[in-house]
Design goal:
Blueprint (H helix, E strand, L loop, with lengths): L1 E7 L3 E8 L12 E6 L6 H5 L4 E8 L3 H15 L5 E3 L5 E2 L2 E3 L9 H13 L4 E7 L2 E7 L4 E9 L1 H11 L20 H28 L3 E6 L3 H4 L7 E3 L3 H10 L3
Parallel strand pairs: 1-4, 4-5, 7-10, 8-11, 11-12
Antiparallel strand pairs: 1-2, 2-3, 6-7, 8-9, 9-10
């Protein structure tokens, strides 16, 4: 029997099946896993019916409508006996203190990502950059304090918004490779601008956090666009897959 962990983002839903979590479990040790676009949510039922699940923990940032659809789907697949627990940001959990002015206002995915990063890199000052539909850049101290962060449009959203809002500019979200900083054609100029905006925000936050803390900083890069952004970073960083799910795994051992 296992636990189903679900990460519902703005464009995709990712899930893993893990053994019933215990403190000290290996982070990211999954029994099964998968993902789907939000529009393909119903297709997950066939896959989930094959799983032996006793607990469900969900991080959802896609809104109430998606939550209602997912709730109905989970009840259909697993019955009323296995009710999902909807993960929320708390003032303190698993050794991480949430210093947001209103702790409950912090996005549950950001709180989970911070939990996951702290579990993977304990007792280090961390900059957690999650590059998804939005890019979030958050600070976690070596003694376990989530102090806050910044939110900006993600790589795809930035490029698409530019193309939609500016006459005659093409859509360039299908490829993102920066060949030169100062491009000599419009497609490459958009790519260079969007990539360097993401990288610039992360590296500026990294520099400022280093000055404020006086500590050695590690940047943890996650999210769907992490593989596109991370190669252009000139700072110490680690790229991590499924960071929110690792955070949920961490939280589940104490909830």
């Amino acid at each position: 029997m296992g636990m189903l962990l679900i990460d519902v983002g703005n464009t995709r839903i990712k899930w893993v099946l893990t053994a019933m979590p215990q403190p000290g479990d290996l982070a990211g040790a999954w029994l099964d896993s998968g993902s789907a676009a939000l529009g393909e949510l119903a297709a997950l039922s066939e896959r989930w019916r094959k799983l032996a699940v006793t607990r469900i923990l969900v991080s959802n940032v896609a809104g109430e409508h998606v939550q209602e659809r997912l709730q109905t789907l989970l009840e259909t697949v697993f019955g009323a006996a296995v009710r999902p627990h909807w993960f929320v940001s708390l003032p303190q959990l698993a050794g991480l203190r949430n210093a947001y002015r209103d702790p409950a206002q912090l996005g549950c995915d950001r709180f989970a990502a911070a939990l996951g990063a702290q579990r993977l890199f304990p007792q280090q000052t961390l900059l957690v950059a999650t590059c998804g539909t939005a890019t979030t850049i958050d600070a976690v101290s070596a003694d376990g304090v989530f102090s806050g962060g910044m939110i900006l449009p993600g790589l795809g959203l930035m490029a698409t918004s530019l193309a939609r809002s500016t006459a005659r500019l093409p859509h360039v979200t299908d490829h993102v490779q920066v060949n030169t900083l100062f491009a000599d054609n419009t497609d490459d100029a958009i790519i260079s601008g969007c990539i360097n905006a993401q990288v610039g925000a992360i590296e500026r936050a990294f520099a400022l956090l280093g000055r404020q803390s006086g500590a050695h900083i590690l940047c943890v890069v996650a999210g769907g666009s992490a593989a596109l952004v991370a190669p252009y970073l000139s700072i110490a960083h680690e790229t991590v897959d499924n960071l929110v799910l690792i955070g949920l795994q961490t939280a589940a051992a104490t909830l």
